[in-house]
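Limitations

Structures in this collection are predictions, not experimental determinations, and the ligand pose is part of the prediction. Treat each record accordingly. The example that follows, with coenzyme A as the small molecule, is included so readers can see exactly what is and is not provided: the inputs are given verbatim, and the output is the predicted complex.
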Amino acid sequence: MAKIRRMQECDLDQVAALEQLIFSEPWSRRSFEETYLKKENCYLVVVEEGQVLAYCGLWGILGEGDICNVAVREDIRRHGLAEAMLNELLKEAGAMGIHAFTLEVRVGNAPAIALYHKLGFEDAGVRPGFYEKPREDALIMWKFSSNSH
Ligand SMILES: CC(C)(COP(=O)(O)OP(=O)(O)OC[C@H]1O[C@@H](n2cnc3c(N)ncnc32)[C@H](O)[C@@H]1OP(=O)(O)O)[C@@H](O)C(=O)NCCC(=O)NCCS
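Predicted complex:
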């Protein structure tokens, strides 16, 4: 049975390996290492029998949460893992006093945009040419939970 919990040191090799497989501009293991434990951040993994199936991260900045890494292993997508993991991330961030959330996503990433819309994120603007490999605009999205001002 898969479990959602905070990212730990023992997850970093698997997280970095998944990141390499999934993204064209992957974060390095060191980038995760330097950020996952910061007290203003929150990084979660979904694990089953020692295998990392999915991960996500949020940076808390001045009371706002910037969701910066969201990925699910390719062979187990469309099973609700991202939705469950992000709902848990929003809950944990709420407990940290964060009630406004933002993220960027490639304008052509229909699965991720559908996921974020389902979670209540709204389109808030476009950042032209934000991504490389390939160059693409970013859609900026926001979600304000009921406790936000
Ligand atoms: C985007 C991603 C994280 C979704 O993970 P997932 O575990 O497959 O998503 P879920 O099963 O939790 O789906 C939840 C909802 O998201 C939407 N969704 C997810 N994948 C979708 C797809 N391929 N097409 C359309 N909608 C999709 C649906 O609304 C879905 O709800 P439903 O199943 O009731 O229709 C996954 O496809 C992924 O890792 N992609 C590569 C990395 C990436 O693009 N990350 C986002 C960077 S901003």
